[in-house]
Amino acid sequence: MHRTLIALVLAGIGCGTPPPTAATDASDADATTPTDATPTDARPTDATPTDAADGAVVGRSYYRAATAGGFVDYPIDLSTRPVRAYVPDGTTAGYQVVPGVGRADGTFEIVGVPPGVTYMLAIGTDYYVTDQRALDRHFSRPGRPDTPKVTQPTPVTFALTNLSALPIGYYPDVFDVITVSSFGAAFDLGFASPFDAPTLDTTKDWRTGYSLVYPGGPPLPTGDDLHIFHARDDAVAIAGGRKASVRTLLDWFDAGTVTLLDGAPATVSGAFVHVQAPVTHSLSVQGWDRAAYDTAYGGASIGGYGVALIASPFPNTLGLGADLAAIGFSDWSRSTALTASLVVPYADPFPASWSRMLVDGYANFRQFSVPGAASSMYVAGGFKRFRLRPAGPPDLAPGLLLPTDVRINGVDAAPGGRLTFDGTRPVEVRWTAAAGATQYTVHVVQMSLNGTRTKATVLADVTTTATSIVIPAETFANATFVAFSLTAIQSTNAYASGVLVENDLPLTTATAIGGMFRLGTTCGDGQVDTGEVCDTTSASATCDVDCTPVRCGDGLANAAAGEDCDTTNDTLACDRDCTLAACGDGHINRTREDCDDGDAIDSGDGCSAACKFNNVCGDGVVQAAVEDCDAGGDTAQCDADCTFAGCGDGYRNAAAGEQCDFEIHNGVASPCSSSCQLQ
Question: How far apart are the C-alpha atoms of 327 and 665, rounded to whole Å?
Answer without folding.
Answer: 19
